[in-house]
Amino acid sequence: MMAASRGAPNRVHKSRFTPVWRRWEQAADALDSAEESEDFQSVGMRCRESLIQLIRALAKPNMVPDGQPAPKRSDVVGWSGLIANSIAGGQHNDTVRAHLKAIAKSTWDMANWLTHASGARRVDAIFVIECDARRARHLPHRYDPAGERKPERCPECGSYSSRQISIRSDAESVFQFVRPLRLGAPRRR
Fold first, then answer.
1. Are 180 and 159 in contact (CB under 8 A)?
2. CA distance 139 to 10
3. Is 135 helix (H, G, I), strand (E, B) or coil?
4. 21-69: pLDDT as tens digits
5. Which residues contact 128 (CB under 8 A, 6 or more apart)?
6. Which residues contact 79 (CB under 8 A, 6 or more apart)?
7. For the whole prediction, is pTM greater than 0.90?
8. Domain assignments of the chain as residue spans, ordered by start
9. How far separated are the first and last CA of the chain, in Å rounded?
10. Are 141 and 147 spatial neighbours (Cβ–Cβ below 8 Å)?
11. Helix (H) or strand (E) holding 166
12. What is the enclosing helix (H) or strand (E) of 128?
């Protein structure tokens, strides 16, 4: 029931983050068959594994500031902070960055709590698995694996309704805009 109704937002996302979604689906399957407190605790354990896989998929050594030791490989909160700093840099992203860090810590804390909650109930497991799925759906949307910042607006007319095409050469990626869907959009100077 849970595994069929939730999960990756689309096939592309699921294929790109297969280990993450496989762990999440295992948690959803465990929830579907759970009856006792121990069963619900195992959902928390599987959610933790899903979060660790997400960090492993997104974390890159170049995200660690010079002179600072890298977090341990499974340090979800530590790596989440570095990932947030990397993908939401700059003062204009202060609120986004703070949210990414807070939701990472909160989701990790919830999964840990459920794993050790002696009186865990179905409603607790549902809440944690929903938090885990939300984190796995949203964080990668801001992530650009090549570290490239694609322009969001057409540099000629300023339109958001332009389509971007990426042309990759051996040396670099070049982003070109296709004219806006609205013909006659005013040019921005």
1. yes
2. 15
3. helix
4. 899 999 999 999 999 999 999 999 999 999 999 999 999 999 999 999 9
5. 43, 44, 47, 110, 111, 113, 114
6. 55, 58, 59, 63, 71
7. no
8. 2-142, 150-189
9. 54
10. no
11. strand 163-168
12. helix 122-142
